[in-house]
Design a protein that fits this description.
2 domains, Rossmann fold, alpha/beta, elongated, 16 helices
Length: 432
């Protein structure tokens, strides 16, 4: 398979062209002939013009790439090496929503041929690829995994907004249903991944490795969030404590904050789901999730307490939230905990305005039913700096003062500002 792909006698197809699939497809297209497939024709039309709908890649990334973008399943018949890179979210009850990955399996199953390869990159629980996806591939194609087609799993490690750790610069885990599949899949990825290839012992090992990467981060951040709650009650600055503790060589430097996005706040629930199927109720993982999911409520409550202390009626207060994306310098609003914070504030009848230089107002309104403003006014009781976009780091401290009326409060959720400089502007300062 590898040699035929390298000689462009066969094609690679990437199914799902979002934050993960598009960068991967374009990297593959440096060496191979690629079909980029997405069910969203509007997105496909943009990519044909060299535009990344996710706003992560510059137009230059599309130049001199052997890639054809399509939403027509019939065109996938020309491919022989399929990579599934669709999202794997959770539903409102935090149960894994496998509809995208099962739908992609349905698509591939319809055009799968003897000798083809199918590699999944979507984050799932251990066993999902072989137990949930393979039966669909086999039923629709009439083929048998191992005998007629090969299977693999290579977990994505895309970090939105990170211009340094791009897809080809991140060590790639690969796995296969047998030794032959593993070797061929490793060669294909190895042709474009500069950082190297790690061959996992099995598909389930690769699935498990991916899901615990973000589970570990989630738990570590939850500890920082719990510490910030405790230290806030004690009147101790959490950032100062972490800076002091960080002087020890083996102290892990995590920080408190809102945990959203499509990975850290989601992946642990996939492992929880599988554990429950096995009859085990996770303790540490769910504890971390409860703490992190509870941070919007904690922050809203602290603001209300501060407003009341200043003899301000929360129902008459006006608050500006700066930044609504799930992390800095990206347009991605998936699973934004800032939206949860806004809703918590609204529960206290607080009038909330939101701005963000990266987020799409239409997408934000569609996803959360909330309205982004083009620009803020100048009569806020509180400004909440929720996301540390570069634009917010660069503003003069007097900028915040001009946005506020008497007895203002500034809540710095990312702890990026200098407390002394904020206080010098006559602003009460609070941070996680």
């Amino acid at each position: 398979m590898y040699n035929e792909l390298l000689n462009k006698e066969k094609k690679i197809a990437v199914i799902g062209l979002g934050y993960v699939g598009l960068p991967l497809a374009l990297v593959f297209a440096k060496k191979f002939s690629v079909i980029g497939f997405d069910i969203n024709e509007v997105r496909v039309a943009m990519m044909r013009k060299g535009i990344d709908p996710s706003k992560e890649l510059e137009p230059e990334a599309f130049v001199d790439k052997d890639i054809h973008f399509t939403s027509d399943i019939q065109e996938l018949k020309a491919a022989h090496f399929f990579v599934v890179a669709v999202p794997t979210p959770v539903d409102s009850a935090n149960v894994p929503d496998l509809k995208p990955v099962l739908g992609a399996s349905n698509t591939v199953g319809q055009i799968l041929k003897s000798g083809d390869y199918v590699v999944y990159e979507s984050t799932v629980y251990p066993g999902c690829t072989e137990e949930d996806c393979v039966p669909i591939l086999e039923e629709l194609s009439g083929l048998k995994v191992g005998d007629d087609f090969k299977l693999g799993y290579s977990p994505e490690r895309i970090n939105p907004g990170d211009k340094e750790h791009t897809v080809e610069k991140i060590l790639k885990i690969v796995s296969g249903n047998d030794e032959g599949a593993l070797e061929e899949i490793a060669k294909v990825y190895g042709a474009v991944i500069q950082a190297g290839i790690y061959k996992a012992a099995s598909i389930m090992v690769a699935e498990a490795a991916k899901v615990i990467e973000n589970t570990q981060r989630d738990i570590n951040i939850s500890l920082m969030n719990e510490l910030s709650i405790i230290f806030d009650m004690m009147g101790i600055d959490t950032k100062a404590v972490l800076e002091a503790a960080g002087t020890k060589w083996n102290f892990l430097k995590f920080v408190p904050g809102l945990v959203g996005g499509h990975c850290i706040g989601v992946d642990p629930y996939y492992l929880v789901h599988k554990a429950r199927q096995m009859g085990y109720e996770p303790q540490v993982i769910l504890s971390g999730r409860r703490i992190n999911d509870g941070m919007p409520s904690f922050i809203a409550k602290r603001l209300v307490q501060k407003l009341i202390k200043l003899r301000k009626n929360p129902a008459e207060a006006k608050v500006l939230v700066m930044g609504v994306t799930f992390k800095e310098n990206v347009s991605d609003i998936r699973n934004s905990k800032v939206a949860d914070l806004v809703r918590e504030l609204m529960q206290y009848s607080i009038n909330v305005h939101m701005v963000d230089p990266y987020a799409s107002p239409n997408e934000f309104a569609h996803e959360y039913g909330l309205t982004l403003m083009d620009s803020p006014s100048n009569d806020y009781d509180t400004v909440i700096l929720a996301v540390n976009h570069d634009e917010y780091k660069a503003v003069d401290y007097s900028f915040f003062k001009k946005l506020m009326r008497n007895d203002p409060i500034l809540m710095d959720l990312k702890a990026i500002l200098d407390p002394a400089k904020v206080s010098a502007e006559g602003i009460a300062y609070w941070r996680l």
